[in-house]
Amino acid sequence: MMHMTFYWSRQVTLLFSSWRTDSWLSYALTLLACVLASAFYQYLEHLRYRVRRGGKPGEGTAEEPFLLQPKGAGTGNRGKGSVGKIVGGVLFGLSSALGYLLMLAIMSFNGGVFLAIVLGLTVGFLVFRSEDDDETTGLNSTCACA
After folding, report:
1. How far is CA 5 from each of CA 8, 15, 110, 112, 115, rounded to the nearest angstrom?
2. In a designed cystine with 116, which of 31, 60, 139, 143 is the match (CB 3.0 to 4.6 A)?
3. Which value, to the nearest 10 degrees, does the dihedral of the CA atoms of residues 67, 73, 76, 80 take?
4. What is the pTM for the complete model shown?
5. Cα–Cα distances in angstroms (integers) from residue 74 to residues 46, 63, 69, 70, 88, in the given order
């Protein structure tokens, strides 16, 4: 049965019909997987921002992001833009897919899964990201799937 409101139970079906929890151990491992996946989402976003900046941590926000620089800007920049775009695109695809999977996991409406994902996003933000990431890219989105 699919729940349409939040419920608190150790019995949950998450993402796939084969991913069911029926014991406290399996439920705890599922919640741990949710925390780790959502923290990994924040890590992927951090990597994506670093690629957009050109991999130069700690620089000011006045510099234009790496992928938005005109072609041929600077010396020896030939070919780096296309590699950066490909890497940025792959990272965007991975983080988008993981973000949507996290959203679908929350749509199981299990309270523990919801709290585990929010906890993982919070811890991942505190560990991997900083205010400089948001200022550099001009992005301040709280949506996990954006």
Report:
1. 10, 17, 8, 13, 15
2. 31
3. 20
4. 0.73
5. 25, 13, 9, 9, 20
Q: Are 35 and 126 in contact (CB under 8 A)?
A: no
- Per-residue model confidence (pLDDT) at position 4: 82
Q: State CA 63 to chain mean position distance.
A: 25
* Residue 35 and residue 43 in contact, taking contact as beta carbons nearer than 8 Å: no
Q: What is the DSSP string of 1-32?
A: ---SS-B--S--B-SSTT-B--SHHHHHHHHH
How many Å separate Cα 35 from the centre of its chain? Answer: 12
Encoded tokens for 60: 């000011």
Residue 34 structure tokens: 């949710």
Mean pLDDT by 10 residues, the chain (146 residues): 83 92 96 97 92 64 52 51 84 95 94 96 91 57 56
What distance in Å separates the CA atoms of residue 57 and residue 73, rounded to the nearest whole number? Answer: 20
Amino acid identity of residue 46, one-letter, is H
How confident is the model at residue 140, as a pLDDT? Answer: 52
Q: Helix, strand or coil for residue 110? A: strand
